Amino acid sequence: MSALLLTRADVAGLMTPADYFDAVENGLRPSKEGRAPGPTPLHLPGTDGGFHAKGAALLGERRLVALKFNGNFPGNPQRHLPTIQGVVLLCDADNGRLLAIIDSIEITLRRTAAASALAARHLARPDASVLAVCGCGDQAHAQAVALGAVLPIQRGFAWDIDTAHARAFAAEMTRVMKIPFEAVSGLRAATRAAGRSSSAV
Q1: Where would you tag: which of 7, 94, 148, 163 has the fewest CB atoms within 10 A of its CB?
Q2: How many Å apart are CA 173 and CA 52, to the nearest integer?
Q3: 3-class DSSP state for residue 23?
Q4: What DSSP designation does 114 have?
Q5: Domains in the chain, start-ordered, CATH in brackets?
Q6: What is the pLDDT of residues 94-124, one digit of tens each?
Q7: CB-CB contact of 53 with 46 (8 Å)
C-alpha cells in the first residue's frame, strides 16, 4: 500500500482549529505520562537560514512515529516564498511502514496557535476580551483565530514593523473574526490600547 500524500490545501480542508486544539491537548497528556517520547531536535545550517528535524512517537493503542523536517529562511518573503516550509513523515511504529507524507506549513501554523490557545484557556482570565497582536505574519492570523475560539475576544489591536502590513492584517481579522480590529502605530501603543481594558490577553 502506498503512502498517503497530503498537500497544504488538503490539510487546510481536512482540519479545523478545533481539531488542532484537540490534537494538541490529546498529545500533551501522553507526553506527560511518558507515552509520547520526543528526542532533542536536530539542526542543520543552510545559507541565510537553516533546517530542523523534530520527531516524536505516540505509543498508545496505535503506535505511530512522526518526523517533521522544516526549513526556516527569514529572507524568503522577499523571494515570495514561505519563511518556514517542509514535510511531516508519519510511520507505523510496529513495522516502519511509511503511512503519510504531509506538507508541514499548515500543520506548523495551526499546531503552534493551538498550543497558545490551550495555554490561554487554562492561564488567561476567562473574561479576557481584548487581543493585542505584535507582528502580523502568517502565524499571527492563526494565533488570533485560535485565541478567539477559546476566549470571548471582542476587540483587537495589531502592530507590525511594516505599518501597511498591520493595517491589512487588522482589516482581514475584522472580516474573519467579525470584531473591530485596529492597527496601531507602535508596540507601546498596542500594549497601552489593550491595557486600557481590564480583560486583555
Answers
A1: 94
A2: 31
A3: helix
A4: H
A5: 4-108 (3.30.1780.10), 124-195 (3.40.50.720)
A6: 999 999 999 999 999 999 999 999 999 999 9
A7: no
